[in-house]
Amino acid sequence: MSKGNLTYWRGSSFYINPTSQCVNDCLFCVRQFGEGVFGFNLVLKEDPSPEELVEAIENDWVPKFDDVAIVGFGEPLINLDAVLAAIKKLKQLTDVPIRLNTDGQARLLYPSRNVARELADAGLDRIQISLNAQDPDTYLRLCRPKFGRVAFESILEFAEQCKPLLRVELSAVNIPGVDIEACRGIAERLGVGFRVRVFKGPEGALEGILRTLTS
Ligand code: SF4
């Protein structure tokens, strides 16, 4: 069984943590600065099975939650089968729309599966896909993807694939070196929503990120 928390919450928001593994190593990631958020340890020794994740949701869910997201401390879709089970369980527990945050590289993780369709069929309502950069070079330097240069294009393709099935939003963290307006323009051309996210790292970290991005 995993050591860290599989669910966590703050106020009326309830979050699911299917994995702490990721295919990126983003310079701005909260994982660079700690082992969790909101006082919860989110570093998992191993990924939960679908049954373990569903059991944690059943144990921790209370009706006061009016915001539900599958986010976690890594890339949720690495543990896709547990995510699908979690969505189905949450749809039994609540009418609150379920959203998923992802780095959008599902087509590289699962070349032979239609992940967008599987998520929609499970009942997912919204997907927020981290674009994070205006071009492949910036993405490579900022997010350091395991899949390399193809990652950026695959994110755009995944967003296109999700568009007819889910409410889609691209996002980018507002840090020096990221052209937020260019990112917004990509979302507009794709015909999906766009959200600017706030950098949550410690003071002084932005200077280090900027030095890495411009070196
Ligand atoms: S994709 Fe998300 S979880 Fe993965 S390293 Fe980047 S910010 Fe962190």
Please provide a written account of the structure.
It is built from eight helices and nine strands. It has 215 residues and is an alpha/beta fold. The chain has a single domain, classed as Alpha-Beta Barrel (TIM Barrel). The strands form two sheets. It has a seven-stranded mixed sheet with strand order 1-2-5-6-7-8-9. It has a two-stranded antiparallel ribbon with strand order 3-4. Helix 1 (50-60) runs parallel beside helix 2 and helix 2 packs parallel to helix 4 (115-122). It is globular and about 50 Å long. The mean pLDDT is 94. Bound molecules: iron/sulfur cluster (SF4). Residues 22, 24-26, 29, 31, 74-75, 103, 130, 143 line the site of iron/sulfur cluster.
CATH architecture: Alpha-Beta Barrel
Spatial order of strands in the largest sheet: 1-2-5-6-7-8-9
Shape: globular
Sheet with the most strands? 7 strands, mixed
Using DSSP, what is the number of strands?
9
CATH domain fold name: TIM Barrel
Topology of helices and strands:
Elements (H helix, E strand, L loop, with lengths): L6 E4 L2 E4 L19 E2 L2 E2 L8 H11 L6 E4 L9 H14 L4 E5 L3 H4 L5 H8 L3 E5 L5 H8 L6 H13 L4 E7 L6 H11 L2 E5 L7 H10 L1
Parallel strand pairs: 2-5, 5-6, 6-7, 7-8, 8-9
Antiparallel strand pairs: 1-2, 3-4
Bound molecules: iron/sulfur cluster (SF4).
Iron/sulfur cluster binds next to loops.
